[in-house]
Write a structure and sequence with these properties.
Blueprint lengths: L11 H4 L1 H20 L4 H15 L2 H13 L4 H5 L12 H14 L17 H24 L10
Helix pairs in contact: 2-7, 3-4, 3-6, 3-7, 6-7
Length: about 160
């Protein structure tokens, strides 16, 4: 492809600020709903971390790992989120939320999908976990497509 034929597009949050504001509002409303149905803030961060791992979004991974740590999450658990099924670190609620994170993020992989038990969650909690996963998947795509930087100097 001829580099001179490429169109320079600013990061999507600046190219369409109205859409970005709507996404921020969706995230805020989703978090309020999730808390209202009894999902813990830490469980919500685990959903965001797992989806961001699958999508390869370094920007969102760094952000949500930091947020989880600020909520008191420990490094041992964060280190094994990608292999959560092989550990005993996670509660039944967290495991169900991680199932939802994976099945929502990998929605196109229906052939290889095995339905896993999410009965540790109420119907409202399932919906909240799904909306959390939907929202972080949108943010992952926004961050990746916009090329949000992840510097090694600790700056945002």
């Amino acid at each position: 492809m001829n580099p001179s034929s490429l169109i320079a597009v600013p990061p999507l949050n600046r190219a369409a600020p109205f859409a970005y504001k709507a996404l921020l509002l969706l995230a805020e409303e989703t978090a309020e709903f999730a808390i209202s149905v009894g999902l813990s803030p830490t469980t919500l961060e685990l959903v965001k971390i797992r989806a961001s791992q699958i999508n390869g979004c370094a920007y969102c991974l760094r952000m949500h790992v930091r947020e989880a740590v600020a909520l008191g999450e420990v490094s041992d658990r964060l280190a094994v989120v990608a292999a959560w099924r092989d550990t005993e670190y996670f509660s039944a609620e967290e495991r169900a939320a991680l199932v939802i994170a994976e099945r929502t993020t990998l929605i196109g992989d229906r052939a290889g999908r095995v339905d896993e038990d999410v009965s540790a969650l109420t119907a409202g909690q399932v919906a909240a976990a799904e909306w959390t996963a939907i929202t972080i998947n949108a943010f992952n795509r926004l961050s990746i497509l916009s090329g949000f930087p992840v510097r090694g100097d600790g700056t945002p």
